[in-house]
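To the wet lab folks,

You asked to see what we're planning to order before we commit. Fair enough. Below is the target structure as tokens, and below that is the sequence we designed to fit it. If anything looks off to you, flag it before the synthesis order goes out.
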């Protein structure tokens, strides 16, 4: 395993931030700085470390993927985090998005349904100094009731129907980002919890693995 303190300068990571994120319109400086700090190579299988900064999702085993950096940055930007938020991350996968969220928020709870992935994510998060992330194994479509409510929720698996439990666990004024749709097409949507109910706005087209409920 390569050394992965995460704070040292890596030209490949700096290039990713400039070319894949800033030039494509990511403008939240906190998000750009967080993505410049987290070593993505620690969250991909060792044989893919050489392509860790490619502009792509990559396989992480168990038929799952680590999201494309631009998508992670977009989701984080849409959540409008300022630093003190309590965040739920549904679909830990590699743990990469959880690490970026940990850089941006006050506390992060991340839930994954596949135990082997959660175990690997745990190691990567420890190695990169993100021990604060609280990992759970289970069905994230039910949220994490004993750690609710959340100021922000990031969902990394696609669904046609916004899980009601996630809306219930989101504070008034809270934001949720989720890929809405099925296998044929999805859009990243941002949902804001208001007194009048959830208000949804669509963002870019995307392609995530399905949210497996139950
Ligand atoms: N954020 C991740 C992306 C992983 S892909 C990263 O940065 O690597 C989405 C993940 O969601 C997969 O690991 C999949 O197993 C998981 N998943 C799918 N349905 C789920 C559910 N109902 N609860 C928790 N995790 C789920």
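Sequence we intend to order:
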């Amino acid at each position: 395993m390569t050394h992965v303190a995460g704070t040292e300068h890596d030209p490949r990571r700096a290039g990713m931030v400039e070319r894949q994120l800033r030039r494509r319109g990511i403008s939240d400086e906190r998000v750009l700085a967080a993505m410049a700090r987290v070593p993505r190579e620690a969250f991909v299988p060792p044989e893919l470390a050489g392509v860790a900064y490619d502009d792509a999702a990559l396989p992480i085993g168990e038929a799952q993927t680590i999201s494309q950096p631009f998508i992670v940055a977009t989701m984080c930007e849409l959540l409008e985090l300022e630093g003190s938020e309590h965040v739920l991350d549904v679909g830990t996968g590699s743990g990469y998005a959880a690490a970026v969220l940990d850089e941006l928020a006050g506390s992060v709870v991340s839930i994954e349904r596949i135990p082997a992935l959660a175990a690997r994510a745990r190691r990567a998060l420890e190695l990169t100094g993100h021990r604060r992330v609280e990992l759970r194994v289970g069905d994230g479509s039910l949220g994490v009731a004993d750690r609710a409510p959340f100021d922000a929720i990031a969902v990394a698996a696609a669904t046609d129907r916004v899980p009601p439990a996630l809306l219930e666990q989101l504070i008034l004024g809270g934001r949720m980002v989720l890929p809405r749709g099925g296998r044929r097409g999805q859009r990243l949507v941002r949902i804001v919890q208001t007194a009048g109910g959830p208000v949804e706005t669509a963002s870019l087209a995307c392609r995530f693995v399905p949210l497996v409920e139950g």
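Structural context that might help your review: The first strand starts at residue 58 and ends at 61. The chain has a mean pLDDT of 95.

Thanks,
Computational group
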